[in-house]
């Protein structure tokens, strides 16, 4: 099979409709994560579900929140973590 690299110049479209949507426009939703250390029983499920967002203290296994406003590609993992937390110590607030 032969692949043809397309070298067609991309036509510049100068008739874009403008960007008058205002600076408040958001790309996707934000999710704010909060943890309740008092509830956390150190099960570590959240760390398994979202290792980039949660860690655990070495001494007692209590959760550490690494990123309270995770990037969009982490939202699913964070929701997973909240869902699997046996202590319901992870709260999510959609922004
Ligand atoms: S899953 Fe819940 S109980 Fe377990 S470490 Fe994470 S926050 Fe704590």
TrEMBL record:
GO MF terms, alphabetically ordered: 3 iron, 4 sulfur cluster binding; electron transfer activity; iron ion binding
Taxonomy, superkingdom: Bacteria
Cofactor section: [3Fe-4S] cluster
Assigned keywords, A-Z: 3Fe-4S, Electron transport, Iron, Iron-sulfur, Metal-binding, Transport
Region annotation (Disordered) ranges: 1-29
PANTHER family reported in the protein's UniProt record: FERREDOXIN (PTHR36923)
Record's protein name: Ferredoxin
Organism the protein comes from: Streptomyces violaceusniger (strain Tu 4113)
Lineage of the species this protein comes from: Bacteria, Bacillati, Actinomycetota, Actinomycetes, Kitasatosporales
